[in-house]
Specification:
alpha/beta, 2-enoyl-CoA Hydratase, Chain A, domain 1, Lyase 2-enoyl-coa Hydratase, Chain  A, domain 2, four-stranded mixed β-sheet, 10 helices, 12 strands
Length: 313
Amino acid sequence: MNDEVVLFELDGGVATMTLNRPERRNAWTIEMHQRYYALMEQCDHDPEVRAIIVTGAGSSFCPGADSDSLQVYSQTGEFNPIQATITQPDWYPMEVRKPTIAAINGACAGIGLAMTLMCDVRIAAAGARMTTAFARRGLPALHGVAWLLPRLVGASRASELLLSGRTFLTDEAAAIGLVHRLVPADEVLATAKAYAADLVANCSPTSWLNMKRQLLLAERQTFPEAIEEAAGRELPALSTRDFHEGVMSFVERRPAHFEALGVGSLAWQEPSLAGLDEPVDEDEGATDRTVTVRSVNRPDAADRTRMVPAVPA
């Protein structure tokens, strides 16, 4: 495997994966696919990784499949044999249990666009070019784009973007909801890292796991089924370390310290009930409310209450 085609960096729980073929504007190859998917799986299983950023080296994100590879396919009608060694399914990035953020620093097309659509959040350089491209290469809509696009921008806009294969700017992508945030090109990665750092500092990996699964399941559920799905996940969540930490950090007005995926979902063991009734300082002019804290591991224990300052709207 060629490790240089996708670079990897881990800092403060945030993994950054950089498509690294700047001499070809990061055009996609089977070697890049192999490395990218292997890194996605590595990040999914590494407890040190909380969030994942994908970006491109230089001034381009990924303009699609490498034209040299496309020429070989058109002449032989066969795929690169390396493809048979890739164990992850094409949709694997959507199965990753942690937030994925596309930092779209430049042109983005074809499979490059598809990889961003599989991410949870898209932050893009203003004025960068995007296209589905497939209709202009004699190809069907590959890599699940015909499934992804309608769910992100609606069937009408998706059909137009696919059937025309036209080039559009990230400004239009933001206007139709395809991109979440536009920033100057030289601020894309820094903005993505700041966003990821906020997720790592304040959000529960156990919640992410549940939410990402719920979002996928909801596509084929009725609304009542989605309600039942949430209810079925709620009861186990109430006994977890992450739930206890989320409640107590709010009650005590301090930053939360959530544990790694697989640890925060373990049952919380109550060390002591002492101190739960200590008063909390009140903010002047705030309207307090009462929070009831029940010991999930001691159902016979009395409920404890304390006043919590209202959170500003």
